[in-house]
Amino acid sequence: MLTIDLRSDTLTQPTAGMKEAMFAAPVGDDVFGEDPTVNALETKIAALFGMEAALFCPSGTMTNQIAIRLHTGPQKEVICHQYSHIYLYEGGGIMANSMASVKLLTGDLGKITASQVAESINPDDVHAPETTLVSLENTMNKGGGSIYTLDEVRPIQALCQEKGIKLHLDGARLFNALVETGESPADWGAQFDTISICLSKGLGCPIGSVLLGTKADIKRAKKVRKVFGGGMRQAGFLAAAGIYALDHQVERLKEDHHRARVLGQFLVQAPHVAEVLPVATNIVIARLEGISPEAYLQQLAAQGIKGVKFGKDLVRFVTHLDFGDDHLEEFGRRIGRV
Ligand SMILES: *Cc1c(COP(=O)(O)O)cnc(C)c1O
Question: Quick one: average pLDDT of 147-170?
Fold first, then answer.
């Protein structure tokens, strides 16, 4: 039976073209700064976003955590949505790596506004940790792959600039947002002090994320990466996959979004599904009724379909490079049987 694995967009296999690019990559010791392919990836993606510099790292958790370390520290505070990956899914790293405090905000679809941020900045007072960072996430994973537009970000950026607070973007799936809105990477780069982007999600690379920022921040980031144990040697084999993905596998994210919308329509009509959150990109979240996520996922597994529990009565499906039209049709056939 054809397995339909929608647990995550990290499950993809490198494409034939990507593998060829990887094997052909010239490499060197990147801790010495001498891997030409890593350097080419960093230069390419920094230029794309109009930012000064970039740093290739093993994971998006590491790029986020490095950024948090750059912009916070003991007795400092970061403001973010309560559904943020940096808070929920990075092992308590804000505390463990930076000894910083967090202020969690609520908001529809995992998004926050400038007025909420304004109300949450701590006063200059001996009792309060100093607010030094605001972190946004685009697309917003736990918000159902929801999108921030530039119009929503600009007032937050202006506020941060006025208050001398840094602004970080967890852009693990930023390209998913950009292919939908048509907004330019450079316009996004202009809004943030640092941006983290995953190459190993929809872009289909086996490993890797990049952190973008100023030359000075990326120089400091390299030292933090070292102490986090993230310095890699002939990493160009992996960076080559990133270059290939940027050249060949960005526009196709639209196909994932199209299939996610169709998948959402199948789910709305399926047994046990009370509602489907608005599908903005490649993430589909369904609310169940009369069955637990565990029991539902077990029934799906018997039909060769895999998803993940995403809350008390929620399940999540993520479309990706290895989920084609044949898988989509099969999903439609089988989902009615559970
Ligand atoms: C996947 C993801 C990350 C980073 O995850 P890694 O598995 O460490 O690469 C960060 N933020 C969001 C929103 C993600 O979905």
Answer: 98
Decide the pairing of beta strands 314-318 and 283-288: antiparallel
Our answer on whether the CB atom of 172 is closer than 6 Å to any ligand 1 atom is yes
Grouping H, G, I as helix, E, B as strand and the rest as coil, residue 167 is strand
- 8 Å CB contact between 135 and 79: yes
State which amino acid sits at residue 205: C
> How many C-beta atoms lie closer than 10 Å to residue 8's C-beta?
18
Q: Which of 215, 202, 194 is nearest to 242 (CA)?
A: 202
Query: Which of 68, 79, 202 lies closest to 130, judged by CA?
Result: 79
What residue type is assigned to position 87 of the chain? Y
**Amino acid, res. 242:** G
pLDDT tens, position by position, 11-39: 999 999 999 999 999 999 999 999 999 99
**Cα dihedral: 78, 82, 86, 89 (round 10):** 150
What's the chain's average pLDDT? 98
Of the residues 173, 198, 207, 281, which should be mutated to test ligand 1's pocket, given the most ligand atoms within 8 Å of the CB? Answer: 198
Residues written for the chain: 338
Q: Whose CA is nearest to atom 3 of ligand 1?
A: 60
Whole-number Å distance, alpha carbon 78 to ligand 1 midpoint, is 18
Do the beta carbons of residue 100 and residue 125 sit within 8 Å?
no
Q: Is the CB of 139 under 6 A from ligand 1?
A: no
Q: How confident is the model at residue 1 (pLDDT cuts 50, 70, 90)?
A: confident
Estimate the crossing angle of helix 215-227 against helix 60-71, to 10 degrees. Answer: 110
What 3-state DSSP class applies to 117? helix
Our measurement of the distance from residue 291's CA atom to the centroid of its chain's CA atoms, rounded to an integer in Å, reads 30
pTM for the full predicted model: 0.97
Cβ 60 under 6 angstroms from ligand 1: yes
Angle at 89 between CA 82 and CA 49, to 5 degrees: 85
